[in-house]
């Protein structure tokens, strides 16, 4: 499994996603982190959107990512003594010599794993790294059937300044692969630099899930207990839900 974020994408990641994502899931995951007394692992730590505040608040948190370019951005924000807390590792086979009370894989991490056997392998690896009664939380979006059929054509999802007087715009297009349950995404960046307009494109894919598929996936894993909620406020799934938030728990051993 490889999912290296290009340097240009990593460079502008904080600006774009603090704007697009913080109001969606930030408080949910920070609350879960605050309520956890022991060690925490964030899978897909990226540039530290969730990680840095948790660390500042005193959480005993660690982070892994498979993208060196994203971690390079995060390293620049950390004290040297904190470098030990992040590492370049894969969800499928990451390894620590201690276990965690909470493991989170926020913002679609699981959707970057297309193969069902690797999905199970990743989830079971999480299970093995949890303490008894520990929790694992991950999220996926509920597929929008209209977008699955028609895709998105050149939608501007961000347009703003990255430095005073310098703007960046991101344009997104998607195309569906209904047979393999994948959404192919093209990100196009345009930004002003050195008195000219720079361009960059990145193609990537996400594997989407339906509800009962997710339930079967967890049933096949080592987890004995789980629930799926429909938003970041803790509400049950409904026709209005846009998210699958999966909360798995490792049973307490007597």
What does this 3D model show about the protein?
The protein is of the alpha/beta class and 254 residues long. The chain has two domains: 7-143 and 210-249, Rossmann fold (3-Layer(aba) Sandwich); 145-207, S-adenosyl-L-methionine-dependent methyltransferases. The chain has helices at residues 7-20, 22-34, 51-56, 68-75, 116-128, 145-150, 211-220; strands at 39-43, 60-65, 86-88, 100-105, 130-141, 152-163, 166-177, 182-193, 196-207, 225-229, 243-249. The strands form two sheets. A seven-stranded mixed beta sheet has the order 3-2-1-4-5-11-10, with helices on both faces. Helix 4 links the parallel strand 2 (60-65) and strand 3 (86-88). The radius of gyration is 18 Å and the shape is globular.
CATH topology call of the largest domain: Rossmann fold
SSE class = alpha/beta
Chain oligomer state = single chain
Named CATH architecture of the largest domain? 3-Layer(aba) Sandwich
Low-confidence stretches: none
Mean pLDDT: 96
Largest sheet: 7 strands, mixed
Strands side by side in the biggest sheet: 3-2-1-4-5-11-10
